[in-house]
């Protein structure tokens, strides 16, 4: 099977590419999981985050944004000692901040999914890139979403991170055109 060239022969990466990456996500809990993971990925490789995903799940209460929003400084210090995750104070504090703001968006729009998918009129953007080097690190749309998130107070959600998030949750389909996951619809 032909896959996107960024996929190594690591079984975890293959499973992620084949079963998750680029598939549209509408569930707020899953959207928050990816939001948190992508914010920790900033400056690192995705495979690093993927290999630590279960550790993140355990450390961050199964990505329960309601619980995370209530974390205090004691919990931050505990997380900073957890060798199974990325121990970056700014990113940990951003996760707590973003969990609170995530809930604000849910109140305003009925769900985070409603907010996010409105940027693409509820339909994934289908790109048809031929090679990985054709895929941009960010787009006007990721700039727009990142700007709105920043205005709302989100941290570690710049345009490049937002674009990676958009790819992961299927807002955009960036499987290269000869990948078996590419859909022409």
From TrEMBL:
<keyword id="KW-0227">DNA damage</keyword>
<dbReference type="GO" id="GO:0008725">
    <property type="term" value="F:DNA-3-methyladenine glycosylase activity"/>
</dbReference>
<dbReference type="InterPro" id="IPR052891">
    <property type="entry name" value="DNA-3mA_glycosylase"/>
</dbReference>
<keyword id="KW-0234">DNA repair</keyword>
<keyword id="KW-0479">Metal-binding</keyword>
<comment type="function">
    <text>Hydrolysis of the deoxyribose N-glycosidic bond to excise 3-methyladenine from the damaged DNA polymer formed by alkylation lesions.</text>
</comment>
<dbReference type="InterPro" id="IPR005019">
    <property type="entry name" value="Adenine_glyco"/>
</dbReference>
<dbReference type="InterPro" id="IPR011257">
    <property type="entry name" value="DNA_glycosylase"/>
</dbReference>
<dbReference type="Pfam" id="PF03352">
    <property type="entry name" value="Adenine_glyco"/>
</dbReference>
<keyword id="KW-0378">Hydrolase</keyword>
<protein>
    <recommendedName>
        <fullName>DNA-3-methyladenine glycosylase I</fullName>
        <ecNumber>3.2.2.20</ecNumber>
    </recommendedName>
</protein>
<dbReference type="InterPro" id="IPR004597">
    <property type="entry name" value="Tag"/>
</dbReference>
<feature type="binding site">
    <location>
        <position position="175"/>
    </location>
    <ligand>
        <name>Zn(2+)</name>
    </ligand>
</feature>
<feature type="binding site">
    <location>
        <position position="179"/>
    </location>
    <ligand>
        <name>Zn(2+)</name>
    </ligand>
</feature>
<keyword id="KW-0862">Zinc</keyword>
<dbReference type="GO" id="GO:0006284">
    <property type="term" value="P:base-excision repair"/>
</dbReference>
<dbReference type="GO" id="GO:0046872">
    <property type="term" value="F:metal ion binding"/>
</dbReference>
<feature type="binding site">
    <location>
        <position position="4"/>
    </location>
    <ligand>
        <name>Zn(2+)</name>
    </ligand>
</feature>
<feature type="binding site">
    <location>
        <position position="17"/>
    </location>
    <ligand>
        <name>Zn(2+)</name>
    </ligand>
</feature>
